[in-house]
Amino acid sequence: MGALFNEELPVAQEFNMHWSEDRRFLKHVYDNVHGNIFIDPLCLKFIDTEQFQRLRELKQLGLTHLVYPGAVHSRFEHSLGVYWLAGEAVRRLRMYQGSELDIDNFDVQTVKLAGLLHDVGHGPFSHLFEREFLPKVIDGCEWSHEQMSVDMVDYIVDEHAIDIDSDTVKKVKEMIVASSKTSGAHRSNEKCFLYDIVANGRNGVDVDKFDYIARDCRACGLGYNFQFQRLMENMRAMGDEICYRAKEYLTISKLFTTRADLYRTVYTHPKVKAMELMFVEALIKADSYLQISSLIRTPAEYWKLDDTILKTIETAPNEELKESRNLILRIRRRDLYQFCNEYAVPKDKLEHFKDITPRDIVCSQKATGVTLKEEDVAVSNVKIDLTRGKDNPLESIKFFKDFESEDKFSIPDDRISHLLPASFQDKIVRVYSKKPELVEAVSEAFENFQLKTYGIKAQVHETPDKKKRRSRLTSGECLT
């Protein structure tokens, strides 16, 4: 982004000058979601590195832009947005409760840096790399982008000799992994409410969600009716955790339901999932030659990996990449895996439901003129929840009556509007045929599987008759 001065000030001196509130020392950037954003000199040192600039080459929503053309925003924009909201959140707490909470410049800086760097270790193509590709090429893979972000922070500091004290780095890294299951063991015990701001492991209400929900809705043309600004104005640190005014429980509910709507209509759109299934297969076939999965071992190699891997595979002349190239070519030409059926798991079966595999479908086909193989079928098992699995996330949030009260409390289910959902988790199975001529056979096999397993055919969307007719014609053409 460029330097601010001809002669840079030492970090300690910058703190003493309170540059966090002095616009003379801040870089001005305009963001299309939050408006004017002001970046402080220390954060700018991290931004002006090739490792952080890599985030420009990571689309926030991966392949989703191939269905929603406006979804081309990057992790770079999102990270700046989270940086800004994290700073605004801690600034409000300091303004309203500063003397009570003893929030100092150190706290402000660490929260802002955590917001800025929370995704610096993110993989290409949204969560596809981490959740779909790596587990299929590395047995027992426990790699996470949060841990890579932590490693990347250390690497950037060392590689670019950034003048930052070790306590700040330690606290920033703790905040980045604050939502992970093991974060408690590595967390400082003082001012725990600060860990709720960027990555809230307690209840899922954090500025990371505030930004990506608003940004993704805007990019995809979806309206959203939750106001994160209200939550930021009506939050309060009580008993070392961030609580919210009780009348805002509907605002928080809208946050979670809007997120679930994004998952249902955008992130897991049937065509998006079809393309993801195809691209994961392309990555798997290319991995032995390109050694993509080996890049996760060190930040020094990992930062070179971004969304351009698709173009690398697509344009490479090597024979070893032919199958991968053909899959990407099919995506480009919209010759996608054909959606056959969708099954929504009934509420009473959610707890014991096991993911359906292509083998389950193939083993359920009846004797017909077509014999399916496992490699002919693709299955996407989609889970959508309100961040707390089958539980109501509102129950893990603490509220207060008004700003004069000193007590915090939870709101149980029976005190919440009956218009809110009775179930907080969905599991949806989508079945695809990799070949157009096998659509009808795959559809029938999946229907047989449902009858054999559940006693009913419970598709949300059945295969359209015209697609079945097309498959018969294609099959007939192939036979002749």
Protein architecture, described:
This protein is of the alpha+beta class and 480 residues long. 44% of the residues lie in helices and 10% in strands. It has helices at 11-16, 41-47, 50-53, 75-101, 105-117, 128-137, 145-159, 166-176, 207-220, 228-233, 249-267, 270-290, 299-302, 309-315, 322-332, 358-362, 439-454, 465-479, and strands at 27-31, 35-39, 235-238, 241-245, 338-344, 377-385, 399-400, 425-433, 459-461. It has a 4-stranded antiparallel sheet, with helices on both faces. A hairpin with a 3-residue loop joins strand 1 (27-31) and strand 2 (35-39). Helix 5 (105-117) crosses helix 8 (166-176) and helix 7 (145-159) packs antiparallel against helix 8. The longest helix has 27 residues, at 75-101. The protein starts with 10 loop residues before the first helix and ends with a helix. Mean pLDDT is 88; it is low at 2-19.
Look at the structure and give the mean pLDDT: 88
Q: What string, H for helix and E for strand, traces the elements in order?
A: HEEHHHHHHHHHEEHHHHHEHEEEHEH
Low-pLDDT regions: 2-19
Q: Approximately how much helix is present in the residues?
A: 40-55%
Report the principal-axis shape. Answer: globular
Strand content: 5-15%
Based on secondary structure, the structural category is alpha+beta
The oligomeric state of the chains shown is single chain
Distance from N terminus to C terminus (CA atoms, Å) equals: 62 Å
Radius of gyration: 25 Å
Major sheet details = 4 strands, antiparallel
**How many distinct beta strands?**
9
Widest sheet, order of strands: 6-8-5-9
User: Total helix count?
Assistant: 18
